[in-house]
Amino acid sequence: xxxxxxxxxxxxxxxxxxxxxxxGSIAVLVVLFVVLASGGEDNSTPTGASGSAExxxxxxxxxPVGGVQELSVDQGTSVVITVKSNSDQEVxxxxxxxxxxxxxGKSERIEFTADIDGVFELELEDTAAQLASLRxxx
Amino acid sequence: xxxxxxxxxxxxxQDLPLPEWLFIWGAAVVLVASFVGxxxxxxxxxxxxxxxxxxxxxxxxxxxxxxxxxxxxxFSVALLLLVFYSGLEGTEAVTRNFAVTFVFVTxxxxxxxxxxxxxxxxxxxxxxxxxALATAWGFRxxxxxxxxxxxxxxxxxxxxxxxxxxxGFLYLELISGFTPHSLAVASxxxxxxxxxxxxxxxxxxxxxxxxxxxxxxxxxxxxxxFAVERSGTRRRLVxxxxxxxxxxxxxxxxxxxALLVVAIGGTSFDGSREGxxxxxxxxxxxxxxxxxxxxxxxxxxxxxxxxxxxxxLVAAVFWLGLAGMRLEIKTQSLxxxxxLFAHAFIPxxxxxxxxxxxxxxxxxxxAQFSYLLSDPLGDGSDLFGTAGHEINYGVVGAAGxxxxxxGSIAFGHALGIALGHDKALALFRNTRRSINSQLFMxxxxxxxxxxxxLLLFKANG
Lengths: 138, 461
What we know:
The structure holds two protein chains of two kinds.
Chain A: H1 15-43, E1 52-60, E2 63-64, E3 69-74, E4 78-85, E5 89-93, E6 98-102, E7 108-113, E8 118-124, E9 129-137
Parallel strand pairs in A: 1-4, 3-9
Antiparallel strand pairs in A: 1-2, 4-7, 5-6, 5-8, 8-9
Chain B: H1 6-10, E1 13-14, H2 20-40, E2 52-54, H3 57-63, H4 66-89, H5 98-107, H6 110-118, H7 127-143, H8 160-174, H9 180-201, H10 203-209, H11 212-221, E3 226-231, E4 234-240, H12 256-273, H13 278-290, H14 295-325, H15 334-341, H16 346-368, H17 371-374, H18 398-428, H19 431-458
Antiparallel strand pairs in B: 2-4, 3-4
Protein backbone atom coordinates (compact mmCIF):
# COMPACT_ATOMS: atom_id res chain seq x y z
CA UNK A 1 0.00 0.00 0.00
CA UNK A 2 1.39 3.44 -0.88
CA UNK A 3 1.92 5.59 2.17
CA UNK A 4 1.06 9.31 2.22
CA UNK A 5 4.06 11.59 1.82
CA UNK A 6 3.13 14.66 3.88
CA UNK A 7 5.53 17.18 2.38
CA UNK A 8 6.72 15.37 -0.69
CA UNK A 9 10.25 15.20 0.68
CA UNK A 10 10.79 11.88 -1.02
CA UNK A 11 11.64 13.66 -4.22
CA UNK A 12 14.71 15.19 -2.56
CA UNK A 13 16.81 12.69 -4.49
CA UNK A 14 15.54 11.47 -7.83
CA UNK A 15 15.62 7.84 -8.82
CA UNK A 16 18.36 8.19 -11.51
CA UNK A 17 20.53 10.07 -9.01
CA UNK A 18 20.09 7.29 -6.49
CA UNK A 19 21.17 4.71 -9.01
CA UNK A 20 24.15 6.85 -10.00
CA UNK A 21 25.22 7.24 -6.38
CA UNK A 22 24.90 3.50 -5.78
CA UNK A 23 26.83 2.52 -8.90
CA GLY A 24 29.47 5.19 -8.25
CA SER A 25 30.07 4.13 -4.68
CA ILE A 26 30.33 0.47 -5.61
CA ALA A 27 32.86 1.41 -8.32
CA VAL A 28 34.89 3.40 -5.78
CA LEU A 29 34.91 0.47 -3.35
CA VAL A 30 35.94 -2.02 -6.03
CA VAL A 31 38.84 0.21 -7.11
CA LEU A 32 39.87 0.71 -3.48
CA PHE A 33 39.76 -3.05 -2.89
CA VAL A 34 41.92 -3.81 -5.91
CA VAL A 35 44.47 -1.10 -5.06
CA LEU A 36 44.70 -2.04 -1.40
CA ALA A 37 44.71 -5.79 -2.00
CA SER A 38 47.56 -5.64 -4.52
CA GLY A 39 49.47 -3.12 -2.40
CA GLY A 40 49.01 -5.30 0.64
CA GLU A 41 50.57 -8.30 -0.97
CA ASP A 42 53.58 -6.33 -2.14
CA ASN A 43 54.33 -5.35 1.44
CA SER A 44 55.00 -8.87 2.59
CA THR A 45 58.31 -10.14 1.31
CA PRO A 46 58.04 -13.91 1.28
CA THR A 47 61.31 -15.73 1.92
CA GLY A 48 59.90 -18.63 -0.08
CA ALA A 49 59.53 -22.24 0.87
CA SER A 50 63.29 -22.70 0.93
CA GLY A 51 63.87 -20.04 3.65
CA SER A 52 65.08 -20.95 7.09
CA ALA A 53 65.18 -19.23 10.45
CA GLU A 54 66.84 -19.90 13.80
CA UNK A 55 65.88 -18.58 17.22
CA UNK A 56 67.17 -19.00 20.76
CA UNK A 57 64.81 -19.01 23.74
CA UNK A 58 66.02 -19.34 27.31
CA UNK A 59 64.09 -19.76 30.54
CA UNK A 60 65.38 -19.08 34.03
CA UNK A 61 63.43 -20.00 37.15
CA UNK A 62 60.34 -20.77 35.06
CA UNK A 63 60.26 -17.40 33.26
CA PRO A 64 61.59 -16.28 29.86
CA VAL A 65 64.95 -14.50 29.97
CA GLY A 66 64.42 -11.00 28.58
CA GLY A 67 60.62 -11.29 28.47
CA VAL A 68 58.30 -13.06 26.04
CA GLN A 69 60.01 -13.07 22.62
CA GLU A 70 58.08 -12.35 19.45
CA LEU A 71 59.31 -14.67 16.69
CA SER A 72 58.09 -14.02 13.16
CA VAL A 73 58.53 -16.16 10.04
CA ASP A 74 56.82 -16.63 6.70
CA GLN A 75 54.80 -19.73 6.00
CA GLY A 76 56.93 -22.56 4.64
CA THR A 77 60.09 -21.55 6.48
CA SER A 78 62.23 -24.24 8.11
CA VAL A 79 62.43 -23.16 11.73
CA VAL A 80 64.85 -24.17 14.45
CA ILE A 81 64.17 -22.94 17.96
CA THR A 82 66.91 -23.74 20.46
CA VAL A 83 65.50 -23.85 24.01
CA LYS A 84 67.35 -23.97 27.29
CA SER A 85 66.33 -23.75 30.92
CA ASN A 86 68.11 -23.76 34.29
CA SER A 87 65.62 -26.31 35.59
CA ASP A 88 64.11 -29.54 34.23
CA GLN A 89 61.11 -28.54 32.12
CA GLU A 90 58.76 -29.69 29.43
CA VAL A 91 58.39 -27.18 26.61
CA UNK A 92 55.32 -27.14 24.35
CA UNK A 93 54.87 -25.38 21.01
CA UNK A 94 51.10 -25.09 20.60
CA UNK A 95 49.37 -25.69 17.29
CA UNK A 96 52.31 -27.63 15.91
CA UNK A 97 52.01 -29.67 19.11
CA UNK A 98 55.71 -30.27 19.60
CA UNK A 99 56.81 -31.30 23.10
CA UNK A 100 60.44 -31.27 24.19
CA UNK A 101 61.85 -32.42 27.54
CA UNK A 102 64.59 -30.16 28.84
CA UNK A 103 67.30 -31.17 31.27
CA UNK A 104 68.59 -28.30 33.40
CA GLY A 105 71.32 -26.35 31.60
CA LYS A 106 71.19 -28.40 28.38
CA SER A 107 70.01 -26.97 25.04
CA GLU A 108 67.46 -28.79 22.92
CA ARG A 109 66.37 -28.05 19.35
CA ILE A 110 62.77 -27.78 18.16
CA GLU A 111 62.81 -28.29 14.38
CA PHE A 112 59.81 -28.01 12.12
CA THR A 113 58.50 -26.50 8.91
CA ALA A 114 56.17 -23.57 9.59
CA ASP A 115 53.32 -24.74 7.36
CA ILE A 116 50.34 -23.50 9.45
CA ASP A 117 49.76 -19.74 9.52
CA GLY A 118 48.65 -18.00 12.70
CA VAL A 119 50.05 -17.04 16.09
CA PHE A 120 51.29 -19.81 18.39
CA GLU A 121 52.53 -19.89 21.96
CA LEU A 122 55.71 -21.58 23.14
CA GLU A 123 55.30 -22.34 26.81
CA LEU A 124 56.47 -24.33 29.79
CA GLU A 125 53.89 -27.09 30.02
CA ASP A 126 53.71 -27.45 33.82
CA THR A 127 53.20 -23.81 34.74
CA ALA A 128 51.77 -22.58 31.42
CA ALA A 129 54.37 -19.77 31.53
CA GLN A 130 54.74 -18.35 28.03
CA LEU A 131 58.30 -18.17 26.68
CA ALA A 132 57.75 -16.90 23.18
CA SER A 133 55.08 -16.17 20.61
CA LEU A 134 55.61 -17.53 17.10
CA ARG A 135 53.95 -15.65 14.28
CA UNK A 136 53.68 -17.44 10.95
CA UNK A 137 52.67 -15.03 8.18
CA UNK A 138 50.84 -16.42 5.15
CA UNK B 1 45.77 -19.12 35.38
CA UNK B 2 43.05 -19.29 32.78
CA UNK B 3 41.49 -15.88 32.71
CA UNK B 4 42.79 -15.42 29.21
CA UNK B 5 40.94 -14.61 26.01
CA UNK B 6 38.88 -17.76 25.44
CA UNK B 7 40.72 -18.47 22.18
CA UNK B 8 43.96 -18.63 24.18
CA UNK B 9 42.48 -20.87 26.85
CA UNK B 10 41.08 -23.36 24.34
CA UNK B 11 42.71 -22.87 20.98
CA UNK B 12 46.34 -23.55 20.25
CA UNK B 13 46.32 -21.24 17.26
CA GLN B 14 45.44 -17.54 17.45
CA ASP B 15 44.43 -15.40 14.52
CA LEU B 16 46.89 -13.14 12.79
CA PRO B 17 45.91 -9.48 12.96
CA LEU B 18 43.64 -8.28 10.17
CA PRO B 19 45.95 -7.08 7.34
CA GLU B 20 46.23 -3.30 7.27
CA TRP B 21 44.77 -2.94 3.77
CA LEU B 22 41.74 -5.00 4.72
CA PHE B 23 41.28 -2.92 7.86
CA ILE B 24 41.26 0.27 5.78
CA TRP B 25 39.01 -1.25 3.16
CA GLY B 26 36.58 -2.58 5.74
CA ALA B 27 36.38 0.83 7.38
CA ALA B 28 35.81 2.42 3.96
CA VAL B 29 32.96 0.03 3.18
CA VAL B 30 31.41 0.81 6.55
CA LEU B 31 31.61 4.55 5.92
CA VAL B 32 30.49 4.54 2.30
CA ALA B 33 27.72 2.02 2.91
CA SER B 34 26.47 4.20 5.74
CA PHE B 35 26.10 7.49 3.95
CA VAL B 36 25.31 6.25 0.49
CA GLY B 37 22.93 3.71 1.98
CA UNK B 38 20.78 6.45 3.40
CA UNK B 39 20.56 8.20 0.06
CA UNK B 40 19.70 5.20 -2.06
CA UNK B 41 17.75 2.96 0.30
CA UNK B 42 14.03 2.48 -0.15
CA UNK B 43 11.62 5.24 0.82
CA UNK B 44 8.74 3.22 2.27
CA UNK B 45 8.99 0.81 5.18
CA UNK B 46 9.40 -2.75 3.96
CA UNK B 47 10.44 -4.75 6.98
CA UNK B 48 7.84 -3.63 9.51
CA UNK B 49 5.27 -6.38 9.09
CA UNK B 50 6.25 -9.98 9.67
CA UNK B 51 5.65 -11.78 6.38
CA UNK B 52 5.94 -15.47 5.81
CA UNK B 53 4.59 -18.30 3.73
CA UNK B 54 3.97 -21.83 4.93
CA UNK B 55 6.32 -24.61 3.93
CA UNK B 56 4.78 -27.82 2.52
CA UNK B 57 2.37 -29.31 5.04
CA UNK B 58 3.95 -32.78 5.14
CA UNK B 59 7.39 -31.39 5.90
CA UNK B 60 6.01 -29.07 8.56
CA UNK B 61 3.88 -31.76 10.18
CA UNK B 62 6.82 -34.14 10.22
CA UNK B 63 9.28 -31.66 11.74
CA UNK B 64 6.81 -30.57 14.41
CA UNK B 65 5.52 -34.07 15.13
CA UNK B 66 5.59 -35.50 18.63
CA UNK B 67 8.27 -38.19 17.98
CA UNK B 68 10.66 -35.58 16.57
CA UNK B 69 10.00 -33.21 19.47
CA UNK B 70 10.52 -35.95 22.01
CA UNK B 71 13.64 -37.16 20.20
CA UNK B 72 15.20 -33.70 20.14
CA UNK B 73 14.23 -33.18 23.77
CA UNK B 74 15.89 -36.44 24.85
CA PHE B 75 18.96 -35.58 22.78
CA SER B 76 19.30 -32.18 24.48
CA VAL B 77 18.81 -33.63 27.96
CA ALA B 78 21.44 -36.28 27.24
CA LEU B 79 23.91 -33.57 26.22
CA LEU B 80 23.19 -31.59 29.39
CA LEU B 81 23.79 -34.70 31.50
CA LEU B 82 27.00 -35.37 29.61
CA VAL B 83 28.16 -31.83 30.43
CA PHE B 84 27.48 -32.43 34.14
CA TYR B 85 29.14 -35.85 34.06
CA SER B 86 32.26 -35.00 32.05
CA GLY B 87 32.73 -31.75 33.95
CA LEU B 88 32.49 -33.41 37.34
CA GLU B 89 34.21 -36.72 36.61
CA GLY B 90 36.49 -35.94 33.67
CA THR B 91 39.99 -34.54 33.33
CA GLU B 92 40.71 -31.05 34.61
CA ALA B 93 42.63 -30.28 31.39
CA VAL B 94 40.27 -27.77 29.72
CA THR B 95 41.24 -28.71 26.16
CA ARG B 96 40.60 -32.43 26.79
CA ASN B 97 37.26 -32.25 28.58
CA PHE B 98 34.05 -32.51 26.55
CA ALA B 99 32.19 -30.05 28.78
CA VAL B 100 34.40 -27.03 28.12
CA THR B 101 34.42 -27.06 24.32
CA PHE B 102 30.76 -28.09 24.25
CA VAL B 103 29.54 -25.21 26.42
CA PHE B 104 31.82 -22.41 25.23
CA VAL B 105 32.08 -23.28 21.54
CA THR B 106 29.47 -25.75 20.25
CA UNK B 107 26.63 -24.35 22.37
CA UNK B 108 27.62 -20.70 22.88
CA UNK B 109 28.83 -20.05 19.31
CA UNK B 110 27.10 -22.81 17.38
CA UNK B 111 23.51 -22.07 18.43
CA UNK B 112 23.72 -18.36 17.38
CA UNK B 113 25.02 -19.42 13.96
CA UNK B 114 22.15 -21.89 13.51
CA UNK B 115 19.67 -19.33 14.87
CA UNK B 116 20.70 -16.63 12.40
CA UNK B 117 20.33 -19.13 9.57
CA UNK B 118 17.25 -21.12 10.56
CA UNK B 119 15.39 -19.21 13.28
CA UNK B 120 14.87 -19.94 16.94
CA UNK B 121 16.25 -23.48 16.93
CA UNK B 122 17.07 -23.49 20.63
CA UNK B 123 13.40 -23.87 21.57
CA UNK B 124 13.55 -27.36 20.03
CA UNK B 125 16.79 -28.41 21.73
CA UNK B 126 16.44 -26.67 25.08
CA UNK B 127 17.03 -29.35 27.73
CA UNK B 128 15.45 -27.31 30.54
CA UNK B 129 12.32 -26.77 28.49
CA UNK B 130 12.14 -30.46 27.58
CA UNK B 131 12.41 -31.53 31.24
CA ALA B 132 9.86 -28.93 32.34
CA LEU B 133 7.32 -29.89 29.65
CA ALA B 134 7.72 -33.56 30.47
CA THR B 135 7.27 -32.82 34.17
CA ALA B 136 4.14 -30.77 33.53
CA TRP B 137 2.76 -33.56 31.35
CA GLY B 138 3.54 -36.11 34.07
CA PHE B 139 1.85 -33.94 36.67
CA ARG B 140 -1.32 -33.75 34.60
CA UNK B 141 -1.29 -37.50 34.02
CA UNK B 142 -0.85 -38.35 37.70
CA UNK B 143 -2.87 -35.61 39.38
CA UNK B 144 -5.52 -35.40 36.71
CA UNK B 145 -5.35 -31.61 36.79
CA UNK B 146 -2.97 -29.01 35.35
CA UNK B 147 -0.06 -27.82 37.52
CA UNK B 148 -0.90 -24.84 39.79
CA UNK B 149 -1.07 -21.54 37.94
CA UNK B 150 2.19 -19.63 37.97
CA UNK B 151 2.77 -16.18 39.42
CA UNK B 152 2.41 -13.37 36.97
CA UNK B 153 5.79 -12.23 35.71
CA UNK B 154 6.46 -8.60 36.70
CA UNK B 155 6.45 -6.53 33.53
CA UNK B 156 9.16 -4.25 34.85
CA UNK B 157 11.61 -7.15 35.06
CA UNK B 158 11.48 -7.61 31.29
CA UNK B 159 14.68 -9.17 29.97
CA UNK B 160 16.76 -7.95 32.93
CA UNK B 161 17.19 -11.41 34.51
CA UNK B 162 18.48 -12.68 31.17
CA UNK B 163 20.91 -9.76 30.83
CA UNK B 164 22.18 -10.39 34.35
CA UNK B 165 22.60 -14.10 33.61
CA UNK B 166 24.55 -13.21 30.48
CA UNK B 167 26.96 -11.13 32.59
CA GLY B 168 27.39 -14.15 34.85
CA PHE B 169 28.10 -16.42 31.89
CA LEU B 170 30.66 -13.99 30.49
CA TYR B 171 32.35 -13.77 33.89
CA LEU B 172 32.51 -17.55 34.06
CA GLU B 173 33.86 -17.86 30.52
CA LEU B 174 36.30 -14.98 30.34
CA ILE B 175 37.35 -14.07 33.87
CA SER B 176 36.72 -16.77 36.46
CA GLY B 177 39.58 -19.03 35.39
CA PHE B 178 37.09 -21.89 35.11
CA THR B 179 37.93 -25.56 35.34
CA PRO B 180 35.75 -28.34 33.92
CA HIS B 181 34.62 -28.98 37.50
CA SER B 182 33.61 -25.39 38.23
CA LEU B 183 31.88 -25.26 34.85
CA ALA B 184 29.79 -28.32 35.75
CA VAL B 185 28.92 -26.83 39.15
CA ALA B 186 27.89 -23.56 37.48
CA SER B 187 25.75 -25.51 34.99
CA UNK B 188 24.01 -27.36 37.82
CA UNK B 189 23.39 -24.11 39.64
CA UNK B 190 22.05 -22.46 36.51
CA UNK B 191 19.77 -25.44 35.86
CA UNK B 192 18.35 -25.09 39.38
CA UNK B 193 17.71 -21.37 38.83
CA UNK B 194 16.02 -22.12 35.51
CA UNK B 195 13.72 -24.78 37.01
CA UNK B 196 12.85 -22.40 39.84
CA UNK B 197 12.10 -19.59 37.40
CA UNK B 198 9.93 -21.83 35.23
CA UNK B 199 7.96 -23.21 38.17
CA UNK B 200 7.36 -19.73 39.61
CA UNK B 201 6.44 -17.87 36.44
CA UNK B 202 5.45 -20.56 33.97
CA UNK B 203 7.63 -22.47 31.51
CA UNK B 204 7.28 -20.36 28.37
CA UNK B 205 7.17 -17.06 30.24
CA UNK B 206 10.46 -17.64 32.00
CA UNK B 207 12.08 -18.90 28.79
CA UNK B 208 10.92 -15.77 26.94
CA UNK B 209 12.18 -13.32 29.55
CA UNK B 210 14.38 -14.73 32.27
CA UNK B 211 16.36 -17.67 30.89
CA UNK B 212 19.50 -16.11 29.46
CA UNK B 213 20.23 -18.58 26.69
CA UNK B 214 16.67 -18.76 25.37
CA UNK B 215 16.41 -14.98 25.37
CA UNK B 216 19.85 -14.45 23.83
CA UNK B 217 19.59 -17.15 21.16
CA UNK B 218 16.01 -16.23 20.19
CA UNK B 219 17.22 -12.66 19.64
CA UNK B 220 19.42 -14.00 16.81
CA UNK B 221 16.61 -16.35 15.83
CA UNK B 222 14.60 -13.29 14.75
CA UNK B 223 16.95 -13.03 11.78
CA UNK B 224 16.56 -16.66 10.78
CA UNK B 225 14.63 -18.11 7.87
CA PHE B 226 11.98 -20.21 9.66
CA ALA B 227 9.43 -19.72 12.41
CA VAL B 228 6.68 -21.73 14.06
CA GLU B 229 3.28 -20.10 13.73
CA ARG B 230 0.20 -21.02 15.70
CA SER B 231 -3.34 -20.88 14.43
CA GLY B 232 -5.66 -22.21 17.08
CA THR B 233 -4.17 -25.45 18.30
CA ARG B 234 -2.28 -26.11 15.07
CA ARG B 235 1.39 -25.32 14.77
CA ARG B 236 2.91 -24.75 11.40
CA LEU B 237 6.43 -24.13 10.17
CA VAL B 238 6.71 -21.06 7.92
CA UNK B 239 9.38 -19.50 5.78
CA UNK B 240 9.87 -15.85 6.65
CA UNK B 241 10.45 -13.04 4.23
CA UNK B 242 14.04 -12.12 5.18
CA UNK B 243 14.47 -9.71 8.10
CA UNK B 244 10.77 -9.00 8.59
CA UNK B 245 10.64 -10.51 12.08
CA UNK B 246 13.29 -8.37 13.76
CA UNK B 247 11.44 -5.08 14.08
CA UNK B 248 9.93 -4.49 17.48
CA UNK B 249 12.12 -7.06 19.24
CA UNK B 250 12.79 -4.65 22.11
CA UNK B 251 9.46 -2.80 22.10
CA UNK B 252 8.01 -2.48 25.57
CA UNK B 253 10.33 -5.04 27.15
CA UNK B 254 12.72 -3.45 29.67
CA UNK B 255 16.25 -4.83 29.75
CA UNK B 256 16.38 -5.63 26.02
CA UNK B 257 18.93 -2.92 25.31
CA ALA B 258 20.96 -4.07 28.30
CA LEU B 259 21.07 -7.61 26.91
CA LEU B 260 22.27 -6.38 23.53
CA VAL B 261 24.87 -4.04 25.01
CA VAL B 262 26.24 -6.82 27.25
CA ALA B 263 26.42 -9.16 24.25
CA ILE B 264 28.40 -6.66 22.13
CA GLY B 265 30.48 -5.52 25.12
CA GLY B 266 31.42 -9.05 26.18
CA THR B 267 32.74 -9.98 22.74
CA SER B 268 34.59 -6.65 22.46
CA PHE B 269 36.18 -7.18 25.86
CA ASP B 270 37.46 -10.62 24.91
CA GLY B 271 38.78 -9.30 21.59
CA SER B 272 40.39 -6.25 23.18
CA ARG B 273 42.44 -8.42 25.54
CA GLU B 274 44.16 -9.98 22.53
CA GLY B 275 45.70 -6.66 21.56
CA UNK B 276 44.19 -3.22 21.91
CA UNK B 277 43.78 -3.29 25.71
CA UNK B 278 46.36 -5.95 26.57
CA UNK B 279 48.91 -3.44 27.90
CA UNK B 280 46.54 -1.23 29.91
CA UNK B 281 44.92 -4.33 31.41
CA UNK B 282 48.35 -5.70 32.33
CA UNK B 283 49.28 -2.37 33.94
CA UNK B 284 46.06 -2.32 35.93
CA UNK B 285 46.67 -5.85 37.22
CA UNK B 286 50.31 -5.02 38.07
CA UNK B 287 49.12 -1.90 39.87
CA UNK B 288 46.64 -3.93 41.93
CA UNK B 289 49.37 -6.46 42.79
CA UNK B 290 51.62 -3.61 43.91
CA UNK B 291 48.83 -2.45 46.21
CA UNK B 292 49.09 -5.82 47.96
CA UNK B 293 46.24 -7.64 46.21
CA UNK B 294 46.99 -11.31 45.49
CA UNK B 295 47.82 -12.04 41.84
CA UNK B 296 44.73 -14.20 41.34
CA UNK B 297 42.35 -11.63 42.80
CA UNK B 298 44.12 -8.81 40.96
CA UNK B 299 43.64 -10.61 37.63
CA UNK B 300 39.93 -11.19 38.31
CA UNK B 301 39.40 -7.67 39.58
CA UNK B 302 41.33 -6.06 36.71
CA UNK B 303 39.49 -8.12 34.10
CA UNK B 304 36.10 -7.40 35.69
CA UNK B 305 36.81 -3.67 35.72
CA UNK B 306 37.80 -3.80 32.05
CA UNK B 307 34.81 -5.86 31.04
CA UNK B 308 32.44 -3.45 32.77
CA UNK B 309 34.30 -0.53 31.19
CA UNK B 310 33.98 -1.98 27.68
CA UNK B 311 30.29 -2.74 28.24
CA UNK B 312 29.93 0.83 29.53
CA LEU B 313 31.66 2.13 26.41
CA VAL B 314 29.27 0.25 24.14
CA ALA B 315 26.33 1.54 26.19
CA ALA B 316 27.63 5.10 25.89
CA VAL B 317 27.94 4.83 22.10
CA PHE B 318 24.39 3.46 21.91
CA TRP B 319 23.11 6.22 24.18
CA LEU B 320 24.80 8.93 22.10
CA GLY B 321 23.13 7.60 18.97
CA LEU B 322 19.72 7.76 20.67
CA ALA B 323 20.34 11.15 22.28
CA GLY B 324 21.27 12.52 18.86
CA MET B 325 18.12 11.08 17.39
CA ARG B 326 16.07 12.95 19.96
CA LEU B 327 17.16 16.19 18.32
CA GLU B 328 14.91 15.15 15.45
CA ILE B 329 12.27 13.13 17.30
CA LYS B 330 11.19 15.20 20.25
CA THR B 331 7.91 13.42 20.81
CA GLN B 332 9.49 10.19 22.02
CA SER B 333 11.43 9.62 25.20
CA LEU B 334 14.93 8.17 25.14
CA UNK B 335 13.59 4.88 26.43
CA UNK B 336 10.93 4.66 23.74
CA UNK B 337 13.53 5.33 21.07
CA UNK B 338 15.78 2.65 22.52
CA UNK B 339 12.87 0.21 22.34
CA LEU B 340 12.12 1.18 18.76
CA PHE B 341 15.65 0.99 17.39
CA ALA B 342 17.55 -1.57 19.50
CA HIS B 343 16.84 -4.41 17.05
CA ALA B 344 18.96 -2.64 14.42
CA PHE B 345 22.01 -3.61 16.50
CA ILE B 346 21.28 -7.34 16.52
CA PRO B 347 23.14 -7.98 13.22
CA UNK B 348 26.06 -5.96 14.56
CA UNK B 349 26.17 -8.10 17.70
CA UNK B 350 26.22 -11.24 15.55
CA UNK B 351 28.91 -9.80 13.28
CA UNK B 352 31.10 -9.17 16.34
CA UNK B 353 30.59 -12.73 17.48
CA UNK B 354 31.34 -14.29 14.11
CA UNK B 355 34.37 -12.09 13.43
CA UNK B 356 35.98 -12.83 16.77
CA UNK B 357 35.24 -16.51 17.13
CA UNK B 358 34.95 -17.93 13.63
CA UNK B 359 38.43 -19.50 13.60
CA UNK B 360 38.04 -20.84 17.16
CA UNK B 361 34.75 -22.40 16.09
CA UNK B 362 36.21 -24.16 13.03
CA UNK B 363 39.12 -25.48 15.10
CA UNK B 364 37.29 -26.60 18.21
CA UNK B 365 34.44 -28.25 16.31
CA UNK B 366 37.00 -30.62 14.84
CA ALA B 367 37.94 -31.54 18.41
CA GLN B 368 34.29 -31.72 19.45
CA PHE B 369 33.38 -34.26 16.81
CA SER B 370 36.56 -36.34 17.06
CA TYR B 371 38.50 -36.84 20.27
CA LEU B 372 36.13 -35.03 22.63
CA LEU B 373 33.28 -37.25 21.44
CA SER B 374 35.28 -40.46 21.65
CA ASP B 375 36.95 -39.53 24.93
CA PRO B 376 34.66 -37.03 26.67
CA LEU B 377 36.29 -37.43 30.07
CA GLY B 378 39.84 -37.33 28.74
CA ASP B 379 40.58 -40.62 30.49
CA GLY B 380 41.91 -42.47 27.47
CA SER B 381 38.69 -44.12 26.28
CA ASP B 382 37.92 -44.36 22.57
CA LEU B 383 34.19 -44.82 22.04
CA PHE B 384 34.00 -44.10 18.31
CA GLY B 385 37.60 -44.70 17.28
CA THR B 386 38.32 -41.01 16.80
CA ALA B 387 40.18 -40.33 20.06
CA GLY B 388 43.51 -40.06 18.27
CA HIS B 389 42.45 -37.31 15.85
CA GLU B 390 44.19 -33.96 15.91
CA ILE B 391 42.87 -30.53 14.98
CA ASN B 392 43.90 -29.45 11.48
CA TYR B 393 44.71 -25.79 12.10
CA GLY B 394 45.13 -25.10 8.42
CA VAL B 395 41.51 -25.91 7.50
CA VAL B 396 40.76 -22.23 6.92
CA GLY B 397 43.86 -20.16 6.17
CA ALA B 398 44.65 -16.72 7.54
CA ALA B 399 43.43 -15.01 4.36
CA GLY B 400 40.07 -16.80 4.46
CA UNK B 401 39.61 -15.92 8.14
CA UNK B 402 40.47 -12.26 7.49
CA UNK B 403 37.90 -12.03 4.68
CA UNK B 404 35.22 -13.60 6.86
CA UNK B 405 36.05 -11.20 9.69
CA UNK B 406 35.95 -8.02 7.61
CA GLY B 407 33.04 -9.32 5.54
CA SER B 408 30.83 -10.13 8.51
CA ILE B 409 31.47 -6.73 10.11
CA ALA B 410 30.66 -4.93 6.85
CA PHE B 411 27.54 -7.03 6.19
CA GLY B 412 26.27 -6.76 9.77
CA HIS B 413 26.76 -3.03 9.61
CA ALA B 414 24.88 -2.68 6.33
CA LEU B 415 21.99 -4.76 7.65
CA GLY B 416 21.91 -2.68 10.85
CA ILE B 417 21.61 0.50 8.81
CA ALA B 418 18.84 -0.97 6.70
CA LEU B 419 16.85 -2.01 9.78
CA GLY B 420 17.28 1.41 11.42
CA HIS B 421 16.34 3.17 8.18
CA ASP B 422 13.21 1.07 7.76
CA LYS B 423 12.09 1.77 11.33
CA ALA B 424 12.66 5.50 10.88
CA LEU B 425 10.56 5.47 7.71
CA ALA B 426 7.75 3.72 9.55
CA LEU B 427 7.91 6.38 12.23
CA PHE B 428 8.00 9.42 9.94
CA ARG B 429 6.67 8.35 6.56
CA ASN B 430 8.96 11.04 5.29
CA THR B 431 12.32 10.27 3.78
CA ARG B 432 14.12 13.48 4.69
CA ARG B 433 13.14 13.51 8.34
CA SER B 434 13.87 9.85 8.76
CA ILE B 435 17.33 10.33 7.24
CA ASN B 436 18.02 13.23 9.57
CA SER B 437 16.90 11.17 12.53
CA GLN B 438 19.28 8.38 11.58
CA LEU B 439 22.47 10.44 11.30
CA PHE B 440 23.45 10.02 14.94
CA MET B 441 22.38 6.41 14.95
CA UNK B 442 24.64 5.92 11.96
CA UNK B 443 27.51 7.56 13.79
CA UNK B 444 26.97 5.10 16.66
CA UNK B 445 26.98 2.14 14.27
CA UNK B 446 30.06 3.39 12.45
CA UNK B 447 31.81 3.77 15.82
CA UNK B 448 30.96 0.19 16.81
CA UNK B 449 31.86 -1.35 13.45
CA UNK B 450 35.20 0.45 13.11
CA UNK B 451 35.93 -0.45 16.74
CA UNK B 452 35.34 -4.10 15.85
CA UNK B 453 37.70 -3.81 12.88
CA LEU B 454 40.27 -2.04 15.06
CA LEU B 455 40.14 -4.88 17.61
CA LEU B 456 40.80 -7.40 14.83
CA PHE B 457 43.57 -5.23 13.37
CA LYS B 458 45.31 -5.07 16.75
CA ALA B 459 44.69 -8.70 17.72
CA ASN B 460 47.70 -10.86 18.63
CA GLY B 461 49.95 -8.32 16.85
